[in-house]
Write a structure and sequence with these properties.
The chain has one helix spanning 54-59; strands spanning 5-10, 15-20, 26-32, 35-40, 46-52. It is mainly β. It has a domain at 11-57. It is globular and about 40 Å long. The chain starts with a strand and ends in a 15-residue tail after the last helix.
Length: 74
Amino acid sequence: MKGKIQIHYDADGDFLEIRFGDPTPSYYEDLGGDTFERRDEKTGKVKGYALFNVQKRKEMQPQDIEIKIPSEEQ
């Protein structure tokens, strides 16, 4: 994967966002469990992920969050 990865965490909103590459007009698809996939409006390529209630997950039974990092082929 070429380019940059941006990671942003908002502690007040308990929200984590991971973005790939330069910003483009995008939309989110709900993957369930307060996890969303960000996709480019024109190409449909994965542009990042958003995770809500990150700190609250620690209160529940510990669990890994697994997401597939997009490849250049997408």
